[in-house]
Amino acid sequence: MKSSPQSPVPLKADSIFYGADYNPEQWPEGTVERDIELMKAAGVNLVTVGVFSWALLEPEPGRYEFGWLRDVMDKMYEAGIGVDLATGTASPPPWLGSLYPETLPINVHGEHLSWGSRQQYNPSSQLFRDKVAALVKAMAAAFGDHPGLKMWHVSNEYGCHIDESFDHESVERFRAWLGERYGSLDALNQAWGTAFWSQRMTSWDQVLPPVVTPTIPNQHQQVDWRIFWSENILDLFLIEKEALRTANPDIPITTNFMDLWDSLDYWRWAEHMDVISNDSYPDPANPRAAREYALHCDLMRSFGGGRPFIQMEQTPSAVQWRRRNPVKRPGQYGLWSMQAVARGANGIMNFQWRQSLAGAETFHGAMVPHGGTETRTWREVTQLGEALSAIEPPEEGAAQADVVLLWDWESAWNQQYACGPVDERVPENELRAWHASLFERHQVVDFAHPESDLTSYRVIIVPALFRLTPAAVARLLEAVAGRASVIVTYQTGYVGPDGHAIEGGYLGNLASLLGVRVQGLYPVSVEPTVLGFGEDLDHDVDHISSSIHTPAASNDVVLRAVDGASFSGKGADWGEVLAVDPDAGVEVIAEFAADDLAGLPVVTVRRGSGAGEAWYVATRLDSAGRAAVLDQVLGVAPAVPRGVDITERGQYIFLLNHGDHEAIVEGDHHVAPRSCRVLLAEG
What we know:
By secondary structure, the chain is of the alpha/beta class. Helix content is 29%, strand content 18%.
């Protein structure tokens, strides 16, 4: 279906929302009353109900049983607890797949994926879509005007397990989508480069999804398959949204995102969300988890155009799906939750309220753990509820950012499915690296699509934008003309809008802005191909082979500053051969210092008269190298005690101490280890 984005319906909040997924169907009668008492003690004011309840809502085809759900909603309303009502469609009941096997997904090997888990549905199945629409319309009619309804929660984590299906209906939808996208089979052949390897198709029934092939598949076909599936699953969401909106246009609608999920283009999805919501599960065993969580928050706020978002899922303690599942350290649950509020969240929700006694998520943490209320988890749950109740939800998402990172799923897919030059997800890795450096220097950061308006930003970072479009180039030229500075990194502009390689030097039309052009690629950190036994070379007897130097196998890329320029740091993984335009006024800040690229430029800047700066980085800089560039572009980072992040939002200043020792901020503000102190901003 086609649906144009509509003005979002706001989620009205008198306080920060706090709560969890609530699954009363897992518990005996009478538990709800006890749970409500505990919820009130914890400061819970919102629960998500019905996420995985289809089998109970519709126990057999066409027979709906909503009485239990109405009873729960009535009791929550009487207790002053709002409901984020899920549509239940995330996990179809066994009867659906049993009676209608065409609703089950088929994997690339032709195998039906059956019930017994969750998300066992084929998003393309018209029958499945009809069943979804019928259930949602019935729920909308039954609950659309319930006074306790705060928000609709459509399905759950789209694409988490099923982001494609290779059934007949999906193939037919794919062909129809390609026909609309390209207009003719000749145009499709051109776009997919089918002149290579004799792949030219002469009828539409020869057009296939990327099924199993003897060797390397067509990368353009794979990219289109990913774009199609993001749109196809979005259509499924829109079926539910339309039914809910028709029943009550005043209730906001959301579905929960999953950070930088690689199979859905969330820029496209965000256009259709009233409220952006997200599930986030950083690893407590990783010291980088705080900045990963910050990235998730900044991304969600950006999807909403700066509007507040809902942290829809996290855990108060530990998950159950890692090989080993570390528990959040004392204070960390509250600290990370306040970090989300500081970066734009107006809701802190969890999975789940009460820890399950059976099922795949038995050992996933919850607000009420197996150990009950005499536990550290419960104490921290109630402490956070009290802290959140003292904060009035700001209308804006965060302080105005003057730095933006560009991100584009279609570009990332083009790099991911390209056969070479490296089998790594470089765009995502670069994005995370530059965001991490900005987080460490307390910089407010937005994300944006490359073709969006960038003129409000002072600094624009373009991390490995593999696919470059004329519209993106125009946006960057416009921003730099308005005195913004741009930092472009390696693996940018390798292919054009059609995914075909750019001739005449990579970077394409962006080269005129940067004053450099990429003439060649130089991957390093290469694991050599092992032949024979792969034994170590013996200098005393392997006289020829032991004399051969292979810098491509080196892990480090040694750099040096040029002509007194201020620069420190080193590179890794990658190098590029740059040609500098001698008439463009380009300054070489650093050059390669060793091996085959020695003396060639690696970090350059073009400072235009009356315009901003245009930087180019031809390697993966380490954190010191990124800091050196950012210091020159943004100035030296502010002096803040180690472990402390300071974030301002609305009338509040959040002092977040991620370290293990008490911190003293600005003279007299003491912040305990792994805790947050909230101050009122002056004025």
